[in-house]
Every structure is written in structure tokens, then in C-alpha cells.
Amino acid sequence: MIPFIQTTLDGLMVGSSYGLLALGFALIFGVMRRLNLSYGPSIMVGAYLGTLLYIQFGAPTYVVAIVAVAGSVMAGVYVERLCFAPLGVGAGVASMVSSFAIWMQLEQASLLMLPRHSYPFPSLTSGELLSVGPLVVRPDYLIMLAAMLAITAALHLLLYRTRFGLGLRAIIENSVAASLSGIDVRSTMLKAFALASAIGGVAGFLVLSANQQVTAMLGMWATLKGLIAMMIGGLGSIPGAIVGGLVLGVIEVHSQTLFGPQVRDLAAYGVLFVLLVLRPGGIFGTAAVSESAAHRGGDRWTTT
Amino acid sequence: MDDHLTGILSNIGVISFVALSAYLLLLTGEISFGQQAFFAIGAYTAGIVTAMWQLPFWLGLGAGAAAGGAAALFVGLPTLRLHGLQFAIATLAFAEAVRILFELFRYQVVRDGEPVGPNGIEGFRNIRYIFEHDVSATQFMLIIYGLLGVTLFGFFLLERSRLGVAFRMIGQDGLLAAAQGVPVFRVKLMAACLAGAIAGLGGGLYAHLTTYVEPAIFDVMLGVHSLAYGLIGGLGTAFGPLLGVVIDIGLLESTRWFAGYRMIVFGGLVAVLLIVRPRGLLDERLVHRIRRLVSRRPPPAPTNAAVLGEEPS
Amino acid sequence: MEAMLEIVDVITAYGKIEALKGISLSANRGRITCLLGPNGAGKTTLMMTVAGVLKPRQGSIKLEGNELVGLSPARIVGNGVALVPENRLVFPQMSVRENLLAGAYQRNSSGEVAADIEQMYARFPPLKERREQLAGTLSGGEQQMLAVARALMSRPRVLLMDEPSLGLAPIVVKEIFGIIAELNREGVTIFLVEQNAHLALQVAHHFYLMEQGRVTFSGTPGELAEDEVIKRAYLGTRRSAG
């Protein structure tokens, strides 16, 4: 029984980073109704900038953290300005493809900065394991869990207690009605993008510091994990993103313990596939994107 | 012909198949991130048939195409009733699962004292049918383009058939098409099958071109690239995705002087291009205009097709 | 009688199709101007163009002499033009109160906003009853009230209304039109789109008729009621609203 709980606990910890990644994705998707394939690569840019400072100048960990988040935000704003803002609502798929093109751009830019496959990354703790009764907890992971809870709480406050949050929720529900109410949709979208990138930057930093290394696969990894977790929890749902992340983490760690790393990934994709087929709305079953809305890019002032 | 050039052209030819595969699904309005799975299935199947079972090349290709089509049917049944983005992610999940399965897949027979066959992560080597039968690089390139030509001819016929019109109708507005009596699900399934077969055919050719395949080749990047080709080259005609492939692979090779900045330049170019032309270079409007010029018919009154999917300007 | 809202030669197109083929009309200060016309005439397109959601290919839309074309919808609200859209478009997952707050998004004085919300509750009692309820659970008539109240929260000088009677029961429609008349008495300039000519005749001061993207009639209620063609097309059959 104890090993099972231990594995589940580990899964929840890992899952909190997935949840944060998914949160960023869900925020962008909820507001823009489009998928940002440059999400992971934006995080990668920030992480690589931080790593550069670390290995070239021995920068302290908190500086690396700040740079990682700031870099992610800068890259995110760049993506928004180039791929999403100019393309408007009607262009649908084009912005997703554009974000993919920028994915390649950002990934190569990162690799130019640091060409090797992996680099050391500063850690937040000494790595000594904590004991909680019969269970063992890695402090880095505990920090991840705490960060996830803190960020989720802060986001909730932002969304439900501030004017900006009200505007954001209005746009998520109906961007045309929001603009008719006097909400500056474009400026709010940009800010949401920056916020999502910042959250992603934090998630990336925490994962890298827990692993004490950064690899060239970071961009792809962050995008895939965030995407899968978001889909499990429910497309565009913010609470769903957290739950999806946790569920993904638990499934992965259990699969790895039982069958090894390859089956771990296989299990994640398998669960996602089955879930999509059986319950396309995800666990929270919200935001079932209608076909016509998807085609017209979410243009929602017609009744059909 | 210069070997290097033959190599590039053959590569362009083979990748065009998976680009056309993604394009076919795009016509029906579906985004698939997973056509590389059928490419992989076709590659492995064809390789097994020729290198392990020692059967003729054409049989291998046929088996590859059939396997691709069958797999597409199998996956399409549960997923095609999903809407847009969920379908896209499902295809992604499927393709990655397939890739991982190939990492676990081992099937080898002994030929001439050596094991031949898919060996998990290490891939499938020695698919040497072409070389063992003295087909030159140039001849194989012609085979590739011959089959590509047949496929393009198939698209040409499709565009002019009722099925092709049904594809585009569904692509513009599935609800409207259903209201007009089009059996949407069945048509989409047909499109998926054809797309799978085309990718499978390309995969078979790819395996024999490079003589070696491994699961890592058939990753998400390949899938998203295939999708991008159609969106860059244009969705108005089957030549659109081909143009996309030529731009990518051709440009990549020719911009050697950009060295390490290739992707940065190319990525930026694509992003800018999509701002200017969201439906690609050879988009429906341009193709329509070219066709009218060619046939010199009087311009028809604007139809609903021009209205749907357009932003007010 | 001065024009508050002046629309001149507006052409709005979807790709190649021109939905508005050169519309010119005006809404006078303190009056209720009504735009009649069949489905597909382009009335909603016109409303969306004035509100800034659609960009016209050419033409000008002036509010008291200030050009609105090219401004974002939010800026247009800031200038004092608010639209109550066709089909209400309330925010279904947000409460009534939050919907009202959304309408007041650009306003900075929270005290004044709170006072206005109380005023809305007084004017629309059902909204007060359901103030914490999710807007998606309200009835059609209540949603219409909410949509009007939300638009009013921005203290507009010109209120655009796109088919406020659509899909509502006759009693509710009567109530809504009562509110329209009341608002007008308080000085709000109203530009109204309606399919139901009977209703409109009771409140509007001036009529335009729009067919297939063009204005085909402009005149007083009396002139409208006398025109034989219009009578037959829009006033002949006693169809219920919506």
C-alpha cells in the first residue's frame, strides 16, 4: 500500500509542473481559441537565457529564475505580435501554423545560444530527501507543488476579483460581446499571453531546477506535456488544466514504475486518445468547440 | 544527373506524399498532426515485405499503401466524429503512440547469416531491394515521380468529381454540407483512408530510398511540417503542398550560406507569409483566377463559396 | 433637428459580397430612429459596422462630427455608442451583476458604477432578483433586459438596438418597448433595428427601410403607414413578433 501512495504522491508532484504548463496553454487557448505551438519553445528561450548566465557568469539561482521567466515572457510577446495579433479571428489555422514556424525559429535560436544536448541547471535545494512518516518527498518537487497551488490561487484572485480578470473571462466567453461592452480585446489578449508565458516560465524553471539540467528537448517536451494535460482536463478549462496535469503526472509515474519509461509515454498518449474518443470535453467537459466556430475562428455573433 | 541533386529531388518527391496526405484531410476541414504515423506504417510494411519476405517491390509498395489506408480507417472510425481541435490532438496522440510502439517492435528473420528486420529503437536497416536489383538512383527518382504523377492525376480527377466537391463543401462548412445531404462522416472517413494510403505509399518509397528507417524519424515535427506544407504552398490545389515541400527542402538546401540560421530565416519568412496570405501561396482565390484565365470563360457571379470562411474586407 | 449619428455611403463587404452597398442615413439627437427590413437585408451588418466590429470598405460614420470608422469597438463604446446586439450575447457563465460590471468596464469610478448598478436594478426589477444568478439561466426576456442594462452601464449617448423583440413573448416585448420609450424620454438617442413594423410604429420618430444592402425608404411613421408597397410587405399580415 505504501509504495502505491508513494508513487501517487510522486505523480502528484510531477503533475503540478504539468498542471502549470497546461494552465498557460489553457489561458491562451481560452482567450484566443487557437493553439499556440510556440508555447514550449518560448519557455525554452527563457530557460536557455538563464542557463547561459549560469554557466558563463555563475549567476545566482534567483537571477536565473528571473531571467528564465522574463525571457519566456519576451518570447511569448514576440509570438503573440507576429502570429496571433495580425491574423485576426477569421484566419483560424494560419496562426497555429505560424506559431509552429516560430517554434522552429525559437528552437534554433536557443540551440545557437547553447548547442550541446544538455547543460547543468542550478537547483533550489540541496537535494536531501525529506521524510514524512513512511513516505519520502523530494523538496524540489514539494516546491513545485507549493508553487502550483500559489499560482492557481493568485490566478483565481486575478480572474474573479479584478477588472482585468472580468475582462479576460468575458473574452473567453464571447470576444465579440466583450468588445461591445467596451473591453479592449487586443490589449487584454496580449496581457493574457504574457501572463501565460510567465506561468510557463515558472513551470519550466522549477522542472529544470528539480532535474538540475536542461536539454534541447525542452521546447517539444513542454509543449506536449502542457497540451496533453490541458486536453485531459478539458480544452480551455483553467481548473481542468490543473487537474489534467495532476492526473497525467500520476498516470506517468505509475506506468514508469510498473513498465518502464517507454510505456510511461505510451500510457500518457493512450489515456489521452481514449479520453478524447470517449469524452472529448475532457474531465471537466467544458468548452466543446463547435465545428463552425472552429472554422470561422470563433466568430461568435451569428446564431448558428 | 548529379547525385546530390538526385538525392534532393528524390527527397522532395517522397516527402510530397505525406504533405499531400495532410492536404487531403485539410480539404475536408480536418487538421491532422498524425499523418507521419501512416508514413511510418507504410515504410515498415514495405520494408518487411521486400527485405524480410523477399517479395517484389511493387507488392511492398502496395502493402505499404494498403496498411496505411487500413490504419487510417481504424483510427478514423472513433476519431472523425470529434470536432476540430480534439481530432487534431487525437491524431497527435495516435501518431506518437505508434512511434513508441515501433520503438518496442522487434521482428527479425535471418537472411544470409544476418538478422534483418525492425529492431526497436535501432530501427530497420538494410532495406536494400533497390540496390540488390540494380536500380540506379536516377531510375528510382523517376519511379518516385512517376507515382507522384499518378497521385496528382488522381487529385486532378478528384477535384472534378462529386466526391471532391463534397470534400470542399465539408471543408467550408460541415453543417451546411450535411444539410445539403452530404454523408459527412462517410466522406471524411473516405478522405482519411485515401490520405492514409497516400502517406503509406510515400513511406514505402522512403524506406527504399534511404534503405534505413527508425522510429525517431516519424516524430511530431514531421507531422507538423506536412501540415505546414499545404498551408504555406496553398490549399487551392494539390500543387500547393508540393510547392511547400519545394520551398522547405529546396530552400533549405540552397540557403546553405545561412548555415546555422536556416530555421530562423525560414520560420520568420513563413510567419510573415501567413500574415499576407493565410490560405497559402496558391490559395483557392488564385487558383480560381488562374483556371478562369486558362479556360477564358466569363467570370461567374460571386457564389456562396466566396463568402464562407472569409473575413469582411 | 441635428444628426447625432451620421452614416454616409458605407460599404461593408464579406470577401466579394457587398452586404452594405452604400448606406446613408442618420439618427437625430433625442429621437428614436428605426431601421426596418427583411432578413438578410444587412441590418445587423450595419449595426456591427457602426459598433466597430466590422470594418467598412468605404464610407464614414460620424458621432456629433467625430469619425468612428477605424476605431476599435472598445473605443467606440468609449465615445458613447453602445450596441445591444441581436441575440443578446450576454455572458452566460457570469452572473447578472458581473455582466453589468462588464458593461461598465471602461469606467473608473467604482462608486458611480455601483450607483448605476442600483439604478439598473430599480429600472429592471427581475435583474435585481437574479443578480447573482448566471446569465445563461435567465429567460429570453430577462436576458434582453440584461443586454440593455449592460449597454446602458457605459452611459451611452447613442443606444443601438438590434432586434430587441426577437424570440420574445408579446407581453415581454411590450415591456421592452416600454423601456425603450422611457429611455428616450430621458434623453437617450436610440437607433433601433426591427422586423416588427407594428411595434416600431408605436415608438419611432423616423423610419428607414433597408433591402438587400440599400436604403429604399426614409420617412415619418405617417408616410410609412401610407406607402402601399410597404403596407403590403410589412404591415399587411398580422404575424407575431420574431
Unreliable residue runs of chain A:
287-304
Which CATH architecture of chain A would you pick?
Orthogonal Bundle
- In round numbers, the mean pLDDT of chain C is 89
Largest beta-sheet characterization of chain A = 2 strands, antiparallel
What portion of the residues of chain C fall into strands of 2 or more residues? Answer: 25-35%
Beta strands of chain C, count: 10
Average pLDDT, all residues of chain A: 86
Q: Count up the helices of chain C.
A: 10
- CATH fold category name of chain A: ABC transporter involved in vitamin B12 uptake, BtuC
State the name of the first-level CATH class of chain C.
Answer: Alpha Beta
What is the 3D shape of chain A? globular
Q: In oligomeric terms, what are we looking at?
A: heterotrimer
What is the assigned CATH homologous superfamily of chain C? P-loop containing nucleotide triphosphate hydrolases
Specify the helix fraction band of chain A: over 70%
Termini gap of chain C = 32 Å
Q: Give the overall form of chain C.
A: globular
Biggest interface found: A-B, 53 and 51 residues
Question: Quick one: how many beta strands of chain A?
Answer: 4
Radius of gyration of CA atoms of chain A, rounded to a whole number: 19 Å
Which key terms come to mind for this protein?
heterotrimer; B: mainly alpha; two-stranded antiparallel ribbon; 14 helices; 2 strands; 70% helix; C: alpha/beta; Rossmann fold; six-stranded mixed beta sheet; four-stranded antiparallel beta sheet; 38% helix; disordered C terminus
